Amino acid sequence: MAGKQICNLLNNSNKITTNKLPVINYFYRSYASWEPRDIETHTGQKFEPDDKRLVRFIDRPKEVNKQWAINLINEVPPQQTEDRIVCCNGGGGPLGHPKVYINLDRPGNHACGYCGLRFTKEDHHH
Fold first, then answer.
1. pTM (two decimals)
2. Does residue 52 sit in the same domain as residue 9?
3. Which domain holds residue 27?
4. Please, which residues bridge with residue 86 across strands?
5. What is the chain's mean pLDDT, rounded?
């Protein structure tokens, strides 16, 4: 109702003509895509393009941590020891894991099943 009265006022006014009114163009740009991109996770999870679970990523990006734990663990060099058996508790305390014993008799690196830290035995020849 008020919009109609304003239009009538402008049309009936001798002082203001519609030719002198500024033209304002509004452009709306949307950065969200209706086709969500499916980024692969560290476990290899990737949805099919017609999967209904992708609907949750239409208006926001899928957040995937690029620092995968396996890559971070691989940056830590293996701990070398002279012992045949080592124990790993993940650092101990409340942030660690149960203590496990790892046999190093076979050559090569041996990883802890909980935290992935690697251990290796130094070979000593007599």
1. 0.51
2. yes
3. 1-66
4. 102
5. 76
